[in-house]
Amino acid sequence: MNTPRRSPLRSERRGDPEKTSGTFVGMPAFPEAASEALLDPQLRHNLSHATGTIRAKRSNVVAELPEWEDLRLAGAAVKDATLRSLDTHLLRLEEQLTANGATVHWARDAAEACAIVAEVARSHGADEVVKVKSMATQEIGLNEALEAEGIAAWETDLAELIVQLGDDLPSHILVPAIHRNRAEIREIFRTRMAAAGRPAPDDLTDDPAALAGAARAHLREKFLRAKVAVSGANFAVAETGTLVVVESEGNGRMCLTLPEVLVSVVGIEKVLPTWASLDPMLRLLPRSSTGERMNPYTSTWSGVTPGDGPREVHVVLLDNGRTNALADQVGRQALRCIRCSACLNVCPVYERTGGHAYGSVYPGPIGAILNPLLKGVGNDPQTDSLPYASSLCGACFEVCPVRIDIPEVLVHLRSQVVDAHRGDRRPSGESLAMKGAAYTFSDARRLERAEKASSLAGRVLERFGRTRLPGGRAAAGRLPGPGAAWTGARDLPAPPRESFRAWWRRTSGGTSGGRSGGTP
Amino acid sequence: MVTCVNDAMFPGTGQAVVTLLRRLGVDVEFPEAQTCCAQPMVNTGYLDEAVPVVRTFVDAFTGYDAIVTPSGSCAGSARHQHGIVARRSGDPGLERAVADTAPKVHELSEFLVDVLGLTDVGAYFPHQVTYHPTCHSLRMLGVGDRPRRLLEAVRGLRLVDLPAATECCGFGGTFAVKNADTSVAMGADKARHVRETGAEVLVAGDNSCLMHIGGVLSRQRSGVRVMHLAEILAATEGTP
Amino acid sequence: MSAREEILARVRAALANVDDSVAPEEVPVPAGRPAGDDLVDRFLERVADYRAVVKTCTARGLAKAVRDALPEGARVVVPARLGIDVPGAVVDDGLTAADLDACDAVVTAARIGIAETGTIVLDHGDDQGRRAISLVPDLHVCVVRRDQVVADVPDAVALLDPARPLTWISGPSATSDIELDRVEGVHGPRTLHVLLVR
C-alpha cells in the first residue's frame, strides 16, 4: 500500500477532548478488527519482518547476562514493593520534586491532565509545544486536547512523527509506525511534511538514513524555537525527586533541555523508591525493549538546575484508571509494566493482527490486560474482547522483564468479563454452551450419553462423508452454523465409532477384545 | 486422566497410553467417573461453571499415587488452575482436595522421564517425524526436552527439526473459534513450517493442538499425518 | 476534595486488601559484571559496537588527539573548564540554541564510563558544560580517563549524584523506527568520538 492508511477514527476524535479514554473511538471488537487486518498482506509482511528482527536482537543481548532471570525477579520485586505503599512513595516524590524547584500537579483523569498541560502552555503564551514520545500523553489524548485549545503539539520521535503526519494511529508501544515500511514513510514525508513546517527534500529516497535526515531537518527548527516541551517519564525516583527518560534519537534530550518550560505527565505507577532501585530497571529495560545493551540516551533531572535546561519544571501525576488496576489483586501486577514492548514482539497474535486491532495506544498482550484494568470491564464490547485476544501461549510472560504473568491476568479478566455479563437479560450463546458443557462434564454418565450421540454422527460421516484425513480417518469439511468458525479453514476429524470409555468398558480395560476402530 | 478431547475424539491416544504404561510395568486404571479438567470453562472465564467439573475431577482421582495424562494443557490446568476454581467455590473441602490431587498430575513425558526414569521405552516407528512442542507443555509445565529425548530413543524414527518450533500453533481453546481468523493464520504458518520439514508425521503432546494443525494440514491436502506422542511411543515392531 | 487527596484516597482504598502482616519477599538485586583485567578494553569494544569512533591516547598526546578528532575548519564549542587547549574553540558562556546550532562540534570531558554497556555518563560539571552544548552540535568529542571507567550499571548508579542532571550516552543518536533498521544520527550528535586517555 503506497498511500497513507488514513484513519476515519482519528478524525472523529478531533476536537473532542472529552473522549480521551485512550481507546480509538468507534473501534470494533478485537475479532472483527483482527480479521480485517489479516487481509492486509503488506501489514503482515512489515510486522513479521520487524518483530522477527527485534526478537533476535533481544534474545542475543539477554543471553549475554547470566544473571538475567535474577534481574527479572529483582525488577518485579522492586515494583511490587513500591506499589504496596504507593501513597507513601507518591508523597515523598511530591516533596522531593517540590524541594527541587518543580511544580507538582495531580490529575484524576485524562481531561484533568490535559487541562493542566494546556494551562501551563497558555500561561506562557505558547501556541505550540514539542513532545517527547510518551505513552501517558497518548493515553490521555493530549495532542487532540491541545489542538482544541489552539495549541499545536509536535511529536518529535521519528515514529510518532510518521504517525502524526500520516494522520494515522500508533500500532506499537516502542515503534508506533511499525506497520509502515520505508516506501510508505517516504510517501508520507513527501506529501505531508510541508504542511507542518520544513518540507521534505525533493530528492528524498526511501533509504532509512535519508528519511531520518529529513526528520532531523524538519524538526530542528521546532526544537530551536519551542518555548514549552511536554514529556512523560520512564521512572520517577521518590527519594531524590528525579525523573528519567530513556530514548534513542536525541529528540528527548532536545525537548528536555532547550525549551524554557517542561511539563512531564507521569503515571502514578512510574514511581521507584530509591535512586539505587534504578539499577535493575536500567539493566532490564534497554535489553528488553530495543534489544541493546543500553539505549543511546538516558536523561535524568531533578527539578530545575540553574543555568542548565528549563527554568520552569512541572510534573503531572496521573491516575486515569491506575487505581482501578491497583485494586485488582491479580491484575495489579500489570502496573509493574515498564513499557518495553517485548511482549508485543513475541506475541504470535500481535505479529499477525498488528496493533490497531487492539483499538488502543496500548496494544499487544500488555494492552489486552492494561486496557480492561484501567477502564473496567462490562462497559463496552471492544474492551471486553481484549482479554480473549490471546491463545494463552505464554510467550509474553517468558520475556517480560518484570515478570507480569500476562496469561494469568488474561484468564482472570475473562472471568471478570463473564461475571459482568451474568445479569444480562439475553444470555449469550457462549454462556449457554458453557453451562451445557459444565452440566455434561459434571457427571461421567452424562458425558457418556453425549459421546454416544457424537459417535453416531461419526458413523454417518464415515459412511457418507468424502473428506478423509491423512491416514484415512473420516472428517468434516466446511460445516454451516456454529461449526463454521472451525471448519472455514480446518477439517474436523469425525467422532470415533467408540469413545475411550466405551472401549475401556467393552474390553475390560483393554484386557480383551483388542483395539477399536476410529483411531486417528 | 485420559482428557475429554481424547475420550470423545481420540480414543486411540488413551489406548496407546494404556498399552505403553502396561508394557513398562505400570498398574493402570481409568476411573470411569472422570470427565474433563474444566480448562475450557476456566480459560473462557466461566469459573462458576468450572466448580462442579473440578469437583468431579477430584472425586474421580483422589487416592491415586499418580495421575498421568497425555496432554500438557490439561496437566497445566489441573496443576495451576484448579486452585483458582476451588478458591472461587468458597469450599475449603474442595480447596483441600485440589491441593492433594494437583501435584500428583503428570504429563505423560514427565511421568516417563521423571517418575519412571526412562527415555527408551522400547518403541519402534520407522518414519520421518517432526515435533511441535505445545505451549502449555513448554511454558506452563516446563517439560523441556523430555519429549524429544523420548522420540530420539525410538528405533527407526528420524526426527527432523521444526522451524519456529516454539511458536504457538494458534489453537488456544475457545480462541480457535472466538478469534477463528487469527487462529487459522497462526495455524497456516505452523502448517507451512511442518511441510518445510518434509516429515511424514507431525507429533505433539496435545491432541487439541494437533486437531487444529492437522485440520489445516488436511485442508491443504498436505498428506502429513498428525500423531500424539503416546501413539508413537506405544508402537513396536509387532504393532505397526 | 482536591485531585491530590482523591488520588491518594483511591490508592489507599485500592491497597486495603493487601495483607500487611506478610512482608514482601526480599529479593536481592544481582551484582553486575565484575571489573576484571579487560575492563578498559571491554569499554572500548562496546562503545565501538554502537558505531562510535573510538581512539586512545596518552595524557601528553591528548590535546593533539582532540585536534585530530576535529575536522579542518570546524566551529567548535567547549565548556568553561575543559582543561584541554582547543585552538579557535568558542567557550560556552550561555550561547543561544541558535548559536549552538551554528557550531559543528563540541569537546567535553565525562563523569564516568560503563564498560559492560559501552556507556558514557555526563553529569554536566564544569569540564562537561550544560546539557545543550553536548547535544546540538553534530560531532561530540568526549574525553574519558582510564580511571573513570567502571564495570557495570550498578557501579555507575552508586557513583552518580542524582541531584545533578545526568546524560547517559551509548553511541551516537540512533533510531530503529523504520523497519527496525538501525540508523545512526537523528537529532543528537550524529558522530560520537570517544577519546580514552590511558
Automatic annotation (TrEMBL), chain A:
User: What Gene3D superfamilies has UniProt attached to this entry?
Assistant: Alpha-helical ferredoxin, NagB/RpiA/CoA transferase-like
Ranges for domain 4Fe-4S ferredoxin-type come to 334-404
Low complexity bias located where?
Answer: 472-485
Q: Where is the composition biased (Gly residues)?
A: 510-520
Q: What is this protein called?
A: Lactate utilization protein
Q: Which GO terms describe its molecular function?
A: 4 iron, 4 sulfur cluster binding; metal ion binding
Which residue windows does the record flag with biased composition (Basic and acidic residues)? 9-19
Q: Which domain of life is it from?
A: Bacteria
Task: Tell me the ranges covered by the LUD domain, including all copies.
Answer: 92-318
Q: Indicate the segments forming the Lactate utilization protein B C-terminal domain, all copies.
A: 422-506
Keywords of this protein's UniProt record, alphabetized? Answer: 4Fe-4S, Electron transport, Iron, Iron-sulfur, Metal-binding, Repeat, Transport
Region (Disordered), start-end ranges? 1-23, 472-520
- Give the source species: Nocardioides guangzhouensis
From TrEMBL, chain B:
Q: Name one GO molecular function term.
A: oxidoreductase activity
Q: Where is the signal peptide?
A: none
Which InterPro entries is this protein grouped with? Cys_rich_dom
Name all Cysteine-rich domain ranges.
Answer: 2-75, 129-213
Q: What GO cellular component term, any one, is given?
A: cytosol
PANTHER family from the UniProt entry:
LACTATE UTILIZATION PROTEIN A, UNCHARACTERIZED PROTEIN YKGE
Name of the protein in question = (Fe-S)-binding protein
- Write down the species: Nocardioides guangzhouensis
TrEMBL record, chain C:
Q: Which domain of life is it from?
A: Bacteria
Domain LUD intervals: 99-197
The family database entries (Pfam families) matched by this protein are listed as:
LUD_dom
Q: What is this protein called?
A: Lactate utilization protein C
